[in-house]
Amino acid sequence: MARFQRRLALPLGVGILLSSAGFLALADPSGWPSIVGAVLLCLAGLAFVLSSATDRLRIAGRAVGWQQANGVGTILLAIGWLLTAVPTVGSSPLFGVVVGVGALSLAFFGVQTLTDGPHVDLEREPSRGRLVGVLALVVVSVGLGVAVAI
After folding, report:
1. Residue 86's closest CA among 25, 35, 41?
2. What band does 1 get if pLDDT is binned at 50, 70 and 90?
3. Do residue 109 and residue 141 come from a single domain?
4. Residue 113 neighbours by CB distance under 10 Å
5. What HEC string does the chain produce?
6. For residue 14, pLDDT beyond 80
7. Mean pLDDT estimate for the chain
8. Domain identity same for 102 and 150
9. 11 within 8 A of 52, measured Cβ to Cβ
10. I need a labelling partner for 19 at 20 to 30 A (CA). Which of 12, 44, 127, 145 fits?
11. Do 54 and 91 fall into the same domain?
């Protein structure tokens, strides 16, 4: 998982940086939650790029591991995503619920990555209950996505 996270961090970070910079260039200045969210997304993209580039970062004389930068980037991504969605929540309450649950999930994953270390322990053979749970989560997420799209 750690190797995959680091490989994915670079294109994800660059994509987030480019899209949030474009959003900032086109943003309406009166929509301050969206602008703050886009700035947080830029910082998240930067954290992802830094986490993919090196094993340890020196920030204010303190060594920070790549997984800590990745965890902070994921948390910033969740908060930025939530703030950029704030103006559109009023038009669709279901969209607000979906964005809130998604942001909470991302934040939880970011905290786990931030505090857990450079690896995530996975079972070699996951239990059937866990597989059924993951499948149920995927079905509910797809269902909510389709409901929001309609």
Report:
1. 35
2. very low
3. no
4. 24
5. CHHHHHHHHHHHHHHHHHHHHHHHHHCCCCCHHHHHHHHHHHHHHHHHHHHHHCCEEEECCEEEEHHHHHHHHHHHHHHHHHHHHHHHHCCCHHHHHHHHHHHHHHHHHHHHHHHHCCCCCCCCCCCHHHHHHHHHHHHHHHHHHHHHHC
6. yes
7. 79
8. no
9. no
10. 145
11. yes
Amino acid letter at 87? P
Query: Taking Cα atoms as reference points, which of 85, 55, 58 lies closest to residue 70?
Result: 55
Looking at residue 75, its pLDDT comes to 93
In this predicted structure, the answer to whether residue 60 has a pLDDT above a threshold of 70 is yes
Do 23 and 55 fall within a single domain? Answer: yes
Q: Which domain range does residue 142 map to?
A: 123-150
Kindly report which listed range (94-103, 108-117, 127-136) carries the lowest average pLDDT score: 127-136
CA distance 150 to 147: 5
Q: Where residue 81 falls among pLDDT bands split at 50, 70, 90?
A: confident
Tell me the C-alpha to C-alpha distance, in Å, between residue 32 and each of 39, 124, 143.
Answer: 11, 46, 31
